[in-house]
Design a protein that fits this description.
89 residues; mainly alpha; 2 strands; 7% strand; globular
Length: 89
């Protein structure tokens, strides 16, 4: 299983409302080559996880990658929940 990547320096623009944020997609503008490479290597969020995020009040869109900007406590918490869900047991 893949894990997630959390950073506060991967997006070109800040996230105004974490709960309305659609996630990082293949066309999301990134800060540089390193961030783009990580995005390109990241797995897509499984639909079952995305549905749980929707139930939690987040608006992550289908096809978003398992990359979470560490720019708000809500998104970091979401990242840790995703990480725990994707750990091999």
């Amino acid at each position: 299983m893949e894990n997630i990547f959390i950073s506060d320096e991967i997006l070109d623009t800040p996230i105004d409302d974490p709960r309305q944020w659609k996630g990082i997609h293949s066309d999301t503008k990134m800060t540089g080559g390193y961030a783009k490479n990580l995005r390109d290597m990241s797995s897509i969020i499984p639909e079952s996880y995305r549905e749980l995020m929707l139930e939690m009040g987040f608006r992550i869109a289908s096809g978003a990658t398992m990359m979470i900007p560490g720019t708000s406590p809500e998104l970091v918490e979401l990242g840790f929940q995703m990480s725990a869900a994707t750990r091999v047991r």
